[in-house]
Amino acid sequence: MTLMETDTRSKIQLPSSLLQATEPIQALLETASLYLHIPFCHTRCHYCDFNTFAGRLPLREPYVRALLQEIEMAGSMARHENGHRRRSRTIFLGGGTPSLLTVDQITRLLQACFQSFAVDDNAEITMEANPGTLNQEQLIGIRKAGINRLSMGAQSFDAQLLKTLGRIHTPEEIVQAVQHARTAGFTSINIDFMFGLPDQTMQHWQETLKRALELRPEHLSLYSLIVEEGTPFHDWVNEGSIIPGDEDLCADMYEYADELLRQAGYVNYEISNWSLPGYHSRHNLTYWQNLPYIGMGTGAASSFAGRRFSNEREPTEYIKMIKAHRLPTVESEKVGPEQAMSETAFLGLRTAMGLHLPTFEERFGIPFSRFVGDRLQPVEEAGLLEHEDGWLRLSARGRLLGNEVFVRLLPD
Ligand code: SF4
Hints:
Blueprint lengths: L15 H4 L5 H5 L3 E6 L1 E2 L11 E2 L5 H18 L9 E9 L7 H14 L1 E12 L6 H10 L3 E7 L3 H7 L5 H13 L5 E7 L6 H13 L4 E6 L7 H8 L7 H17 L3 E4 L2 E3 L6 H7 L4 E4 L4 E4 L2 E5 L3 H9 L5 E6 L2 H14 L4 E2 H8 L3 H5 L4 H5 L3 E4 L2 E4 L1 H5 L1 H5 L6
Parallel strand pairs: 1-4, 1-11, 2-3, 4-5, 5-6, 6-7, 7-8
Antiparallel strand pairs: 8-10, 9-10, 12-13, 13-14, 15-17, 16-17
Helix pairs in contact: 3-4, 3-12, 4-5, 8-10
The structure holds iron/sulfur cluster.
The site of iron/sulfur cluster (SF4) has 11 residues, from loops.
């Protein structure tokens, strides 16, 4: 059984704030969500393949200076023809470990975003943080600087599993970090946990979820372990020294979590994400709705003005490029209308709410039925899709066999 196979609900209960577009699509297409990448960590976790570097902490200040310059360059590039600054609804500081920056560095980065972009007064401004890298004073400082949502990488409440993962924090530090964040005034907190870990039993998972719910975070992201090439975990799995959880156990863990979180009032609005009503991640919805975003910093990706582009990944090289007043873009491709339509449909169908067909037509100027032709007919006939009030989404059976649907949406 795969993860998708566990999801057998026939109807999805979603808060109306998610189902209804909050703004016309044409207005949303004129905005750009901002992502700032901070590529530093104390040590590399054993499963991590993100673009992040251990042992480079002295580079933090030169890196922040380069990032400030890139924010200014990106702001100019994204300005409207009339010279007005581009509107931003969300900012996300990700990594790496952004909580390794000082309050002053974070404040300067946010100020630069506020100067170069027209950031909404009620923008969602998230920072990723790792327990063990946060103290009360720092949390008060970043809240004051404008961060209003924290996303914490906790991964497990089991001390031994944290060691296996190569995490630097203890279970107690997770609790402490959340308590400090509450005291500092954070009312929107996400916590990430992982399942399918080597030697993780169902009992470990139940205990982790129980302790997570005691903290009552507004949002939870639950990911199954993916063993990526080039990581210590990959080598250890190949050697046979660790064995990740099998598919059946992962499916049971997912199902258990989904049921427990639903009973606790959370909504599963995307396969790996649950939130209390109104606390879904607006930034992540930008990606799933295929709306424009501008990524800055090493390796950051952007999707803006009909192009997709990404930055130099290595910090020293990135800093050099910025110092030479060069844009740090290393890859760029044009996204034509066919591709944009395919991707919008594909990403929409991966979410619990599905694809809103009137919005698709308003965005691309043609009905979804004309774009897709008869390509979806076999999967419609097989009952993999369902329609409801203008929404097209995977049926319970479709969630088991999502790839059958997705491949039909790819451009020829
Ligand atoms: S803290 Fe996060 S980004 Fe850093 S090494 Fe661990 S998993 Fe990777």
